Amino acid sequence: MAVRTGQQFIEGLRDGREVWYNGERIADVTRFAPFEASIKALANLYDLQHDPKYRDILTVDCPEFGERIARPFEMPRTREQLALKRESYRIWAEATCGMMGRSPDFLNVMMASLAAKRSFFAEFSPARAEAMVNYYRHVAKHDLFLTHALLDPQLDKGKARHQQSEPDICLRVIDRNQDGLILHGIKRIATAAPYADEILVWPFPPTFQPGEEPYANVFAIPMNTKGLKTLCRPSFAHPGARHDYPLSSQFDEMDATVVFDHVLVPWDRVFLHEDIRFLNRMYKDSRMRELTAHQTNARLETKLGFLYAVILRMAEVSGIASRPDIMELLGEAVACVEVIRSTTRSAEEQATADPDNGVLYPDLFALQAGRALGPVFYPKLVGMLRRLGGGGLIQMPVSLSEFDSPIARELERSLRGADVSGLDKAQLFKLAWDLCGTEFGARHELYEMNYAGDRSVLMAGIQREYGRKQYYLDHLDRFMRAL
Ligand SMILES: Cc1cc2nc3c(=O)[nH]c(=O)nc-3n(C[C@H](O)[C@H](O)[C@H](O)COP(=O)(O)OP(=O)(O)OC[C@H]3O[C@@H](n4cnc5c(N)ncnc54)[C@H](O)[C@@H]3O)c2cc1C
């Protein structure tokens, strides 16, 4: 079953998992109204894998598996494979307008990256490396959907994990036996956790200090594991209101806190444990960033392109698209889209094969530029929506069905724009509001600003690791010497 259908994905979620919403346990996540539309959107992604139009891009015959697997699981060895991977990310991203940041491809390519660098895990322990590779094969073979949880509760940021008011608020190993490790504690912001198949856990940022060894673990378990509780944030979905909330009614990815209550993690699911030295190296030395940022930047390109199109349409329906100041604004939006678009292509062009595993890695620095600029560009484009919409964004009717009511004429006359009916303009402005005014919109801005980690840490890392630093310094030195 290496390429699942949407129905198979949905059936897999009826597994007795413990998910809590507003103080109550959800009996069946697939029938819980706030999740239904997002699960349907995800199921659609799985179905696309079987659509003859997309099948050869979204899936690939893999000799190593002896069957077809979803494209993100493939370890790329040629530029063509990298381009096909990007194309597969684009197809899925377009199906959700880029609004599902943690669609299955994100962690699936992450698993391929980790397994590709089995040598890193083998340095820690050959048995753990084998467990990692077997797990990758398991996830690919069953076409699973993973969530991930990296962060500890925010607590007192001035203290290490073991120095907090209680040492086991942050997730840590509290015991072990012949079957595995016993973990206890909390991780947070696992996006899509209520309807993912399994959870991959590792700690971030990689700044572990002596004393924090029990917290330094990398492992994966199914979401229905005994003792694992998923606690949801408020839903931002608007079930059924597709015309009034075009995005939040379909694509609200739930974010969740995950609580581990004496959870047994079997040894074959433990990939690294209680070792701060290896944990601090993992983020960089497993080379997970190159292949995952390739996916995240491809998704962001789609999302920014979608916002650009909404901005342009708003300018047109307002009759101001050719005014010089609005042309400048639109040009800036185009530049943002194109910069992010260029990062993936440039990274592929400059990709290099790793002699350790033969995998072709897209260029990290080109991709990191996208990660650095996404948190700037996305709020900038959202600001453009607000600027163009002005007060018009909040003078919308409660529901577009009011255009079928006795007040239809008044609505039509008050909302029409340049060569556009009141109904069509209201539909467009409601879409814009879903991007810039609703809770869903606010969450997306927060997501784009944070998903790749705290920006100051990200930027410092980019400067620290910059591989072309010496090249530019050498040029400067040559120039200075020649003066
Ligand atoms: C919508 C959304 C979805 C997400 N999805 C996922 C997911 O699926 N899986 C996952 O693992 N993570 C996810 N994340 C988490 C994301 O990676 C983090 O939000 C990001 O790394 C920032 O960490 P933080 O939220 O703990 O903020 P913090 O690190 O607490 O940062 C908040 C502020 O505090 C400052 N600060 C922090 N520590 C210190 C200090 N010691 N001294 C001084 N200032 C400090 C920061 O500079 C920043 O200004 C998601 C986040 C969002 C918003």
Overall tally of structural domains? 2
Strand content bin: 5-15%
Radius of gyration: 24 Å
From the spread of the alpha carbons, the general shape counts as: globular
Strand order of the largest sheet: 2-1-10-11-7-6
Low-confidence stretches: none
Q: What does the largest sheet look like? A: 6 strands, mixed
CATH-defined fold name of the largest domain: Butyryl-CoA Dehydrogenase, subunit A, domain 2
The number of distinct helices, counting runs of at least 4 residues, comes to: 17
Give the strand tally.
14
Q: Which CATH first-tier class of the largest domain would you pick? A: Mainly Beta
Helix-and-strand structural type: alpha+beta
End-to-end separation: 67 Å
CATH architectural label of the largest domain: Beta Barrel
In CATH terms, the superfamily of the largest domain is: Butyryl-CoA Dehydrogenase, subunit A, domain 2
Average the pLDDT over all residues and give the rounded result: 96
